[in-house]
Amino acid sequence: MEKTINYKWKNTVPYLILAAVGICLLYRARFGFIWSDESYYFEEAYRFLQGDAPVVDDWYTSQLYSVLLIPYMYLWKCIAGIGFSYLFLFSRYLYVIIQFIAAVICYRILRKRSCKAALIAAVLFMLFCRGNIATLSYYSICTVCLFIALLILFRVNESEKGTIPVMIFSGALSGIAIICNP
User: Fold this and answer.
1) Rounded to 5 degrees, what are φ and ψ at 163?
2) Concatenated DSSP letters for 105-169?
3) How far, in Å, are 15, 83, 134, 164, 181 from residue 139 at the CA level?
4) How far apart are CA 90 and CA 138, in angstroms?
5) Given 79, 82, 88, 144, which residue has the most CB atoms within 10 angstroms?
6) pTM to 2 decimals?
7) Structure letter (DSSP) for residue 35
8) Max CA pair span of the chain
9) Which long-range contacts (CB under 8 A, 24 or more apart) does 39-48 make?
10) CA 7 from chain center: how many Å?
């Protein structure tokens, strides 16, 4: 009976730690992260949503990433109407949720090797934020996609049960990472 309770706690505590880190990051998201670029990430996608053509009307490399945000901006416009109030705050919250999901995936894949090392890797990934830009930027999307793609490849290598759809998904995530940071 005691082994069962210890086993349950051993499996539950890492998720509680990840949830605590996620709650702290959600709290921090309310106070902002970046000073100048946050509006640019969404402005570019909104321009394309209004009819500007990628590569024709814009020559910056960040436009490649902005094309990925067009569906997100379209959904936001449909849900929120014309206004973009709370777009930045919602995007920060969404960023933290995506980081949390990626950290859980990291822990679940790496825990077979070492639970402690897997938990440390997952927490460090949640806390890492390149340039302190914790929103849907080309840096954050690139990092998450590449990280999950590498975790998938690690798992396929460990289990030697690599299926074609899993490998295609990993390749698609790698492609998105390349589009975000060419």
Assistant:
1) -90, 155
2) HHHHHHTTT-HHHHHHHHHHHHH--GGG--SS-HHHHHHHHHHHHHHHHHHHHHH----HHHHHH
3) 26, 26, 9, 28, 7
4) 17
5) 144
6) 0.86
7) S
8) 68
9) 39/88, 41/65, 41/66, 41/69, 41/135, 41/136, 41/137, 41/138, 42/69, 42/73, 42/84, 42/87, 42/88, 42/91, 42/136, 44/69, 45/69, 45/70, 45/72, 45/73, 46/73, 46/84
10) 30
What sign results for the dihedral spanned by CA atoms 100, 104, 107, 110? negative
User: What is the C-alpha to C-alpha distance for residues 141 and 101, in angstroms, rounded to an integer?
Assistant: 13
Tokens of 172: 């698609």
CB 149 within 8 A of CB 105: no
Q: Token pair for residue 70?
A: 């067009």
| CB atoms closer than 10 angstroms to residue 71 | 11
Both tokens assigned to 64: 């490649």
